[in-house]
Fold this protein.
Amino acid sequence: MRGIRVLWFALLVCVMAGLPLSAVAQTPPSAQSAYAPVEHLAGTIGPRVGGTPGNRAAAEYIAAQLRQHGYQVELHAFEFPYYEERRVDLVQLTPQQRSVAARAMFYSANTPPAGVEAEAVFVGLGRPQDLEGRRVRGAIALADPGEIHPAFKVANAAQQGAVGVVTYDDQPGGIVARTLGRRSPIPAVGISQEDGRRLVAAAREGGLRLRLHVDGLFETRSSVNVAATRGGAARPGEIIVVGAHYDTVPGSPGANDNASGVAVVLEVARVLATTPTARTIQYVLFGVEEFGLFGSSAYVNERRRGVVAMINLDMVGWGPRLMIGNSPGRDGAIVVAAMRVAADLGIPVTRLHSSGSDHFSFEQVGIPTIFLHRGTDPYYHRPTDVASNVDPQHLEEAARVTVGLVTHPAFPSAVLHHRLVAMGGRQPCFRRPPMRYCTLE
Ligand SMILES: [Zn+2]
């Protein structure tokens, strides 16, 4: 996830008060019905890494669910660069010899077969200013997590002549899989927070040598976006995309990330199957997000004609409060409109700034988006992201807000009725990696 910067400008005068909610769904979303796909995707199918059998099984299941709700389903195939870690070995050679558990970041360059052996140099956060004056050439750079995306840490270290990068988790307990988005110039691995802190202390004392082996598979593979469409009654040429990714990282059953979002999209499709809406609604379940938003990018490149807004659901099954937002620096008016819809439904929400999911692909081509999310859970990208952590009531809330949005007569043109009033100053923010968010009270 890439959303790091918080731009909290301010709030907002809404002149939308009084706009009627029209076409109300005939059947309201149900927690129980929304939860069933989470159990199937995370419990029965399990990991759904793009380009693997689990990914295909998930696509078939989702297509079957949509057909059961009365939709015609399209499968939009696309190719993407698949990556798989085959072997990673990290060994601390001095001052003591011991092996350190490590995972390759997706698209890490491979080491030569004999590995690389070098002194480890601590480079702080790995920004250009952190690298100044450090003897990184020929060394393995050891970087703190946070502030900038790991891909930039790797690029900055490579530019200074480093032969590898080791970074570590910002939370205890295991190693979270992360993507570099594209093949890196030098090998890059992640280690646990505990090992990271220990190695940083050793590197600061000097004399820390590491040996690193990375062997990863690079291959072009294919996946599908699963799409179902229901034509609008008044403006059929205007399409609202309601989307979620169904893939996972390797080894994680992906209940909250992101069977939860898929389940909400399916629930919204179910309750709106026979309800007329002004605009066309297209439900799109993206086949590959975790490697780097490839499913939504393929959709945006090939099929964005007529799309006037996109609602993205990612990780909506765990966490204290539903969050509504879009990427830092994007138009806040559509978010305010969405928050108003949630408030009218009696659902408390928090303002979010994050570019870390599929809505970002739509924003890149100027399509207004809404991102629904509940924060990062402690099971994120881990084998423990199981269905029992997902609260069915949270799914129902997200489904109710989504139904409220897509059936609102003024959405997304509600943005035209809003004005942003900058009040200046920064509001206090909570920080929970990989993103920050602020609360709208
Ligand atoms: Zn996700």
Observations:
- The longest strand covers residues 73-94.
